[in-house]
UniProtKB/TrEMBL annotation:
Annotated TM spans: none
SUPFAM superfamilies linked to this entry: ARM repeat
Function field: Together with methyltransferase FTSJ1, methylates the 2'-O-ribose of nucleotides at position 32 of the anticodon loop of substrate tRNAs.
Residue span(s) of domain tRNA (32-2'-O)-methyltransferase regulator THADA-like C-terminal TPR repeats region: 972-1075
Sorted UniProt keywords: Coiled coil, tRNA processing
Entry's Gene Ontology cellular component terms: cytosol
Name of the molecule in the record: tRNA (32-2'-O)-methyltransferase regulator THADA
Domain tRNA (32-2'-O)-methyltransferase regulator THADA-like TPR repeats region: 252-524
Record InterPro entries: ARM-like, ARM-type_fold, THADA-like_TPR, THADA-like_TPR_C, THADA/TRM732_DUF2428, tRNA_methyltransferase_THADA
Length: 1075
């Protein structure tokens, strides 16, 4: 096996059976993956316990780790990297087994001062902040095993592990590291487990305060809190074992609780929040008795420091501690907390405190409890009512969400505890129960619950007055929705203490309907969801005359020129679709509209039947309006923008389970009409959306008189940003009856407007903005409609299939539609929404059992890559606007590729794009290079590709840096954007205000171990830059890529852990930087 691993096999000495089975492993060039898993087999299949392998086994063990170290510097694919880390961790486990009964020579070679352990530590330091969480976890295992290996190696000497030189140096070097390094926390935690906390506290007495200081950074909080927990648990057990009385707790409080109280009173907002959420619960779970110590100190301080708008003060700290204690079961009830620890007046003071978090913590104290059946006391209900009066209008979304969430927890407690009370009441006990649940008769508590909930609902509906603010409406509707959800309509023998529908009269129903007409969609959603939670037998839902009026209003709103009106119409229609009385209330209206519904299938679901009626009605109106828009787009933009109808159709389809339809024969022609009408609508608005400057375009009416003139104008405003953009200027074609003055007169700029006749025959102005909004919203809604059809409707390839709604040809037509608009639209709003619909289509195609449909994404990808590569001047691909929709198109095709496969499309595409983005002397390659750089940028930004894209970062960085030296501005611009994306991808999103935040850096060894190809490249580029800095004239000559190189190198820093003889040392860069 050693010969196989070291690739030094003597074929004459190999057994014949091994040669027959593993001939490929016996050759010199074994693949990295094969060698890696050969190491794994060696470690897992051989018996390393009790020294059974003997001296040759010890030699094999050392050979295995040397091979793993070699592979570590060569393997860069994330999957193999993770396997390597697991195998290396497995090696350390095997080494521990061998060390337990090994020879002294092996112990010398595997103690902390040996070369093997040094290389293992280098691996840990290089990978302890790796992007893969599983790999970081393996580095923790390796580090812990290193400590155990060293401990076993020292067993015979009998020396104290904590006093050992290797451990001492290791501890000191870890403490010297900056606290932003996540690996530091993990390794210090392992050290505490092995040597205890006393030795670390002796070296760094203020370490608890140091760790609490960094808990304002969310990315470090889990690591810091886990380390603190390990430390204070170790310290407690150490002090208890040494103490003779209870005075040890004072020292423990001074070390761990006092810094916590200082942070709670004086720390910044984020720091306090994370300490309360992560550190405080662990501290109380370790020592619940500390609560009384904390409350005693905070009570004294709260009298003097009640806090302010921007400071919680001691009162805020007190409420946070009590809330955490109760939520984790350290307080039996809020009443006990008030009586024994804090007064009722102080609770109310917290509920209306100037600082929002103090109010939230006080509310949490009342609402949160570790037992869902604990009775809500009268005092708690009074305080909740008091709180709601003053806190519905919070301007902070986060605070609103927390208030609603906490109140929902309270309602759940009321519902759960009421079931217990009903059981107690049914037992018909003659005496009033006196137990931990209740101190009064169950019927009294149930009556209090009902009165309390009615009072809450009254306050919430009163807050929904006309003109009330968005925050108030959001809070009130969310809480009402929680009440309707927590207290459902009783079924069978289940009893409920409260029903919301019993408290909704005509006035309150009208209030909810008026909430649908607001400008904020979140309020519409909440009001709609609340209406849908009410029982279907609700009296207000049975008034057919009122439903008919609502339907007529919804149709009028769906064609309003105000964009938010169509959203209102959509929610109104979706509400009406679910009402039993809808068909009867629309009989007269449908007759005038000549919508052929018939009696319908009696077995069909009512919702499906109603949806079909509504969509037919909307579609008939839409077809008529598209016909009118084909003659006058200006008239449509001013009087009947069509996107509202499409939006309502899409909204109705989304609420329906289209994969289990019963009226298939009636749906099929409707779907076909929807597709045809969508394509017609798209054709009407496309000239504006695909114009190179759609923001200021007003097209002429396409009636017979002006058709030729409009065509002439559209020919001249065709996009000038195609593949000949960088080669020659666009020259206007000559025309006898056309000149520039006619053009400026016929196509006004953004400040002019055209006059047309509105619905009532009145003259109204149409601005370029109105036309553009109408066009791009129409394109957006068509894209979303087609995406919904692809995602929800079943596909069929056999014409005789009775259940199919969408044919293969129709799916291909939809794909061609998306392709055309993604590759030709210039308006970002249009192609971004087309991308959303196209993603839905590609996801469906990749899962489709039909092979011809499965291969469509691959065909589309090859076609667009070929078009980019050819750089034909007649191509309609947009070379400016960051390649417009082209990156979105390729992104959708690649991101939807199944991740469990080989990702062949991504590999081939990246290879092609990096080749196009590389340096070349051919001037004809400028446009393909710009496209390639823009597409690479989009792919590196796509989070769905995750770690799969990491192996291409080095090549992308090379292309960006070399592209920065191009003489063509467009190439330099795209290279700059790509480089910026790569910096974010490598170093993370910038969260600090300073230019070089500690969180967005890494050590040189870590950076170059992830991207080894960049080491010689950056060194060579830096040398070139240094050689061109000094010119013959004595003036500084700044090389174009100097800034990019320094930007990368400025984010790298030397670590105290870096090996002095590292092959990827930063030392060679220093002379060139100094020059």
């Amino acid at each position: 096996i050693s010969s196989l691993l070291l690739r030094s096999v003597d074929h004459t000495s190999i057994p014949e059976w091994l040669l027959n089975c593993c001939r490929s492993l016996c050759c010199a060039d074994v693949s990295q993956s094969a060698l890696l898993f050969l190491c794994q087999g060696t470690l897992t299949m051989l018996d390393w316990q009790d020294g059974r392998m003997g001296p040759s086994g010890e030699a094999l063990l050392l050979d295995t780790v040397r091979v793993l170290f070699t592979l570590s510097s060569q393997i860069k694919e994330s999957t193999l990297e993770m396997f390597l880390s697991r195998i290396l961790a497995s090696w350390t486990n095997s080494a521990i087994q061998v060390l337990e009964s090994s020879s002294p020579s092996l112990k010398d070679r595997l103690n902390g001062n040996s070369d093997m352990v040094r290389r293992l530590l280098e691996y840990v330091y290089t990978h302890w902040e790796h992007p893969l969480d599983a790999l970081r976890h393996q580095t923790k295992i390796i580090f812990r095993n290193i400590l155990q290996m060293h401990q076993l190696a020292l067993e015979e000497s009998g020396s104290d592990l904590a006093a050992d030189g290797f451990i001492f140096q290791l501890t000191e070097s870890l403490l010297r590291l900056e606290w932003h390094s996540k690996g530091k926390y993990t390794c210090l935690g392992c050290l505490v487990d092995y040597i205890g906390i006393e030795h670390i506290l002796a070296l760094a007495k203020t370490i608890p305060s140091q760790i609490l200081e960094v808990m304002g950074d969310q990315s470090l909080v889990p690591y810091a809190s886990d380390l603190l927990e390990t430390m204070f648990k170790s310290h407690k057990s150490c002090l208890k074992s040494q103490a003779v009385d209870s005075t040890w707790i004072d020292k423990w409080h001074e070390t761990w609780v006092s810094p916590l109280l200082f942070i709670l009173c004086e720390g910044n907002l984020d720091q306090k929040s994370y300490v309360i959420d992560y550190y405080l619960p662990k501290l109380l779970n370790c020592n619940p008795e500390s609560l009384s110590y904390m409350v005693k100190i905070l009570q004294t301080s709260a009298d003097a420091k009640t806090g302010s708008y921007d400071s919680r003060g001691a009162l805020g700290a007190l409420m946070a501690c009590l809330r955490t204690a109760r939520a984790h079961g350290h307080l039996q009830s809020a009443t006990d907390a008030w009586r024994d620890l804090v007064s009722s007046a102080r609770i109310k003071q917290g509920l209306i405190h100037q600082h929002c978090q103090v109010r939230i913590d006080t509310l949490g104290l009342l609402c949160e409890c570790n037992r869902s059946t604990e009775i809500v006391s009268t005092e708690e209900m009074e305080c909740i009512q008091f709180f709601i009066t003053y806190n519905l209008n919070s301007q902070s979304p986060g605070v609103r969400q927390q208030i609603c969430s906490l109140l929902k927890k309270l309602f759940c407690r009321i519902q759960e505890s009421s079931q217990v009370l009903y059981k107690l009441e049914q037992s018909k006990s003659k005496h009033e129960p006196e137990n931990e649940l209740t101190r009064q008769h169950p019927s009294v508590s149930l009556r209090q619950y009902k009165n309390f909930m009615s009072s809450i609902c009254k306050s919430l509906f009163e807050a929904l007055f006309p003109g009330s603010s968005y925050p108030t409406r959001f809070s009130a509707l969310t809480i009402l929705g929680s009440i309707a959800e927590v207290f459902p309509v009783p079924e069978g023998r289940v009893q409920t203490v409260y029903q919301l529908s019993h408290d909704i009269d005509v006035g309150r129903f009208q209030t909810l309907m008026e909430c649908l007409t607001g400008t904020f969609e979140e309020v519409k959603i909440l009001a709609f969801d609340l209406l849908m939670k009410l029982p279907k037998t609700f009296v207000q839902f049975q008034d057919s005359e009122k439903l008919q009026g609502l339907f007529q209003a919804a149709l009028e709103l769906s064609t309003s020129t105000k964009p938010y009106d169509c959203v209102t119409a959509s929610y109104l229609l979706n509400f009406l679709i679910w009402q039993n009385a809808l068909p009867s209330s629309l009989s007269a209206y449908l007759k005038t509209q000549r919508v052929a519904c018939g009696d319908g299938d009696k077995s069909a679901a009512l919702v499906e039947s109603n949806t079909l009626i509504v969509i037919k009605c909307l579609l008939e109106n839409l077809e008529e309006e598209v016909s009118r828009a084909e003659n006058s787009l200006l008239q449509a933009a001013a009087s009947f923008p069509m996107y509202g109808r499409v939006h309502c159709i899409t909204g109705a389809l989304r609420k329906l389970a289209l994969n289990s339809l019963q009226l298939v024969s009636e749906w099929r022609p409707v779907v076909e009409k929807l597709l045809v009408t969508s394509y017609r609508l798209s054709a009407v608005v496309s000239p504006v959306i695909q114009s190179s400057s759609p923001e200021g375009l007003i097209p002429m009416d396409t009636d017979a008189e002006s058709a030729s003139r409009l065509q002439m104008i559209l020919n001249e405003i065709q996009p000038r940003d195609t593949n000949d953009y960088f080669n020659r200027a666009k020259i206007l074609k000559e025309c006898d009856s056309f000149d520039l003055e006619d053009l400026s007169a016929s196509v006004p700029n953004i400040d002019t407007s055209a006059e047309i006749k509105g619905k009532e025959g009145k003259t109204c102005d149409v601005t370029a903005q109105m036309v553009l909004v109408c066009c791009w919203r129409s394109m957006k809604e068509v894209a979303l409609l087609l995406g919904s059809l692809c995602q929800l409707l079943p596909m069929w390839s056999v014409p005789e299939s009775p259940d199919g709604l969408l044919t293969v040809e129709q799916v291909k037509e939809i794909g061609d539609y998306f392709k055309q608009h993604l590759l030709q639209s210039r308006h970002r709003g249009a192609f971004e929404l087309a991308y959303t619909g196209f993603v839905k289509l590609t996801e469906i195609l990749n899962r489709c059992p039909n092979l011809s449909l499965q291969k469509l994404p691959e065909e589309w990808l090859w076609n667009v890559l070929e078009e980019i590569r050819c750089s034909d001047p007649s191509s309609k691909l947009c070379a400016t606007r960051r390649s417009a929709g082209i990156p979105f198109y390729i992104q959708a095709l690649l991101a939807s590729e199944p991740k469990k496969g080989k990702m062949d499309l991504l590999k081939i595409t990246m290879k092609e794009l990096i080749s196009l983005a590389g340096p070349t002397d051919d001037l004809q390659s400028t446009v393909p290079k710009v496209h390639a750089l823009n597409i690479l940028r989009a792919l590196f930004r796509d989070t769905r590709l995750g770690e799969i894209i990491i192996p291409y970062i080095a090549d992308g960085a090379k292309a960006a840096i070399l592209g920065f030296t191009s003489p063509v501005w467009a190439v330099r611009n795209s290279s700059t954007l790509l480089f910026s994306t790569l910096i974010t991808r490598i170093f993370g999103v910038k969260r600090g205000k300073d230019e070089l935040s500690k969180k967005n850096r890494m050590t040189g060894s870590e950076f170059f171990s992830r991207f080894p190809e960049l080491y010689p490249f950056l060194l060579k580029q830096l040398e070139t830059v240094a050689n061109t800095v000094d010119s013959d004239t004595g003036e500084l000559n700044h090389h174009p890529s100097m800034f990019l190189l320094l930007l990368v190198l400025g984010r790298l820093y030397p670590s105290p852990m870096d090996g002095t003889c590292s092959a990827l040392s930063m030392a060679p860069f220093i002379p060139f930087i100094m020059r």
